[in-house]
Amino acid sequence: MASGKILVAQGGGPTAVINQSLVGVALEARRFGQIGHIYGARHGVRGIIDEDFVDLTQETSHNLELVANTPSSALGSTRDKPDAAYCHEIFKVLQAHQIGHFFYIGGNDSSDTVRIVSQEAQAANYDLRCIHIPKTIDNDLVGNDHTPGFPSAARFVAQAFAGANLDNAALPGVYVGVVMGRHAGFLTAASALGKKFPDDGPHLIYLPERVFDLNKFLLDVKTMYERHGRCVIAVSEGIHDASGTPIAALLAKEMEHDAHGNVQLSGNGALADLLCEEIKAKLKIKRVRGDTFGYLQRSFIGCVSDVDQREAREVGEKAVQFAMWGSRDGSVAIKRTGFYSVDYELLPVEDVAGKTRVMEDEFIAANGTDVTDAFRMYLRPLLGSGMPDAFRLRHNPVAKVLHK
Amino acid sequence: MASGKILVAQGGGPTAVINQSLVGVALEARRFGQIGHIYGARHGVRGIIDEDFVDLTQETSHNLELVANTPSSALGSTRDKPDAAYCHEIFKVLQAHQIGHFFYIGGNDSSDTVRIVSQEAQAANYDLRCIHIPKTIDNDLVGNDHTPGFPSAARFVAQAFAGANLDNAALPGVYVGVVMGRHAGFLTAASALGKKFPDDGPHLIYLPERVFDLNKFLLDVKTMYERHGRCVIAVSEGIHDASGTPIAALLAKEMEHDAHGNVQLSGNGALADLLCEEIKAKLKIKRVRGDTFGYLQRSFIGCVSDVDQREAREVGEKAVQFAMWGSRDGSVAIKRTGFYSVDYELLPVEDVAGKTRVMEDEFIAANGTDVTDAFRMYLRPLLGSGMPDAFRLRHNPVAKVLHK
């Protein structure tokens, strides 16, 4: 039987609720008498290699609850992507500390780490239970209805576009908002939930699941601008042409000057700025503004879905339960059971690791620039309670006197 | 005596609470029996010229309350900056509709419009009461302790930096956040309120009130990075060198390539991207990220200060009271009377119009890269109740076993 020491770590990009999962593990583990110590590794797998552990058993439940409600990774994170040799080092440290259960909260890369460490332990005949706990704002883990962290980031994006739409209605023009998600468009698609009235933006949504054509884009913008006198556009940072070349790179080239020069073409404001320049130059629209949501969408404090908080806590709790009562390693997954309720299951890590989910076709409108009602139904309950709402003055026009 | 018709309009950039002032005017005006009609001009002064009026008297109080809680300008706004001829046209329309009271909610430009229209009416011996109602996220109106709209935008900036700091602590590196405010650094300075623990960011704050020196900046960043292993930086979009040249323009030139080429150097991501490139190139720091908060900081729905909401409502109410019970035109101003309470007074429009307030010296630390406690005391009550808070795990290290 596995020993009474557990180790938990957090990997990859932080989310608004990743500490809920950490605290879910810590508090649930305390309910099992056979668990003597709960260690946390600082800065993910890097902290394991460095034996940089803190003893979470000595935390108060009160402080754990406060940390649970704090965004970003309280233990620290890492971008290290362990290969087999790295995982072997991880395993050696786990062995030295007589860790019996290893919980790793993270996305794709983290699940792959769990997979390799699990294999190492089996090969060495060391009794280790390895559980991957899902987390990613990109919502790109297969086997999950959705992933913890995505609903809160989606809520930020929906609120950002609801506000940007109101701003754009007050001072009409074209607004381009660039959203995270290199391969999966879920977060960009969440912009659609910021829409209330039929003429609200976002009027156009560009996802990495569809090939981006610049001429088609300009025509779309022109059409919407003529229809509404304004246009709000949501763009995924991952848009690319048919060959897979990022649009930012293409635009920089097309503009025939060294726009953004040596400046990297992702993880900055280049795509938004270049698209805006293109619209100004080709469509002769004067007021064109672009924002790149950047880190705000994943790190802003005070924009969180209560559904996401609850589920992130639960995946942590369930991970411990699966580990203590179950007989195999795995990856905790969220299954939707009703509108709206969920349950959890333990998938084989191999089913999750190294795979990327993208938006299902049924979620993307036929025209390629909008989402479907199926997507709206999918996402709405995840955003949680207390979503801010926008209202308008009713239109009671006054008759003209001077210019009748 | 002035007629029983009033006209209200909204100008300049929208804020989170500008509709509170609109609704303050509309609801307070209904309490005066002699006011028969409350008109709203759509899209600011542009709507006056175009006689594009809606009758707010026909609104329900319930819908007005819902609109009050909706950010951005419900009547629409404009960037038109009226000159004397434009103001004459405004006056002609007010005269034709027998408007007796004109309320204009806006910043510097709007107060100047009120000043000129007021003079036009006096010259024509037309009985018109003109009141300017303050609004600007820049907090740059003289004669005011602060301006409605600023507290909510400041809250967004503080929350954004609180979150960015947590993200940066989890995945250490350098983070640059560029904040609005061309001449006044109040909004950028609000980033300091996102700080809780002594080693939290923002570690450096650059305001337009101080001359920006690139070498000094790089040295500051290097020092902080060495001290904390990371560095979070708040930068005003308005930073400039001793000659007043914007830093984005200087950097583009210094990098000796056409970075951002024909792309405009303000109102986009250029400054953040160029500063990040500079840090990477000169300090050899690998993980450097920049965000430009852009429109999010003024239009995000769901991040609002309740103090700001209340005061924005009150300036609207007081404007009507000053108009109905007073005997002169003016600009409503907020005066701080306690820690924390305010009262309102009517300043001569001439005292406000065409002037720009910048941060007082007592608010800026001697080193030029931080704010003072005086500023923290000034801003904290404005942010309102329910500010999200960040907590940390307490440090209970576990002894190393392998690498003792």
Automatic annotation (TrEMBL), chains A, B:
Compartments where located: Cytoplasm
Domain Phosphofructokinase intervals: 5-322
Pathway: Carbohydrate degradation; glycolysis; D-glyceraldehyde 3-phosphate and glycerone phosphate from D-glucose: step 3/4
Transmembrane segments: none
Enzyme Commission number, as recorded: 2.7.1.90
Marked site (Important for catalytic activity) residue numbers: 135
Residues flagged as site, Important for catalytic activity and substrate specificity: 109
SUPFAM superfamilies per the UniProt record, alphabetical: Phosphofructokinase
UniProt KW keywords: Cytoplasm, Glycolysis, Kinase, Magnesium, Metal-binding, Transferase
Entries under InterPro entries matching the protein: ATP_PFK, PFKA, Phosphofructokinase_dom, PKF_sf, PPi-PFK
Principal place of residence: cytoplasm
Domain of life the protein comes from: Bacteria
Catalytic residues (UniProt): 138
Binding-site list for Mg(2+): 108
Reaction it catalyzes: beta-D-fructose 6-phosphate + diphosphate = beta-D-fructose 1,6-bisphosphate + phosphate + H(+)
Oligomeric and partner information: Homodimer.
Protein task: Catalyzes the phosphorylation of D-fructose 6-phosphate, the first committing step of glycolysis. Uses inorganic phosphate (PPi) as phosphoryl donor instead of ATP like common ATP-dependent phosphofructokinases (ATP-PFKs), which renders the reaction reversible, and can thus function both in glycolysis and gluconeogenesis. Consistently, PPi-PFK can replace the enzymes of both the forward (ATP-PFK) and reverse (fructose-bisphosphatase (FBPase)) reactions.
Family statement drawn from the similarity comment of this UniProt entry: Belongs to the phosphofructokinase type A (PFKA) family. PPi-dependent PFK group II subfamily. Clade 'B2' sub-subfamily.
Designated name of the protein: Pyrophosphate--fructose 6-phosphate 1-phosphotransferase
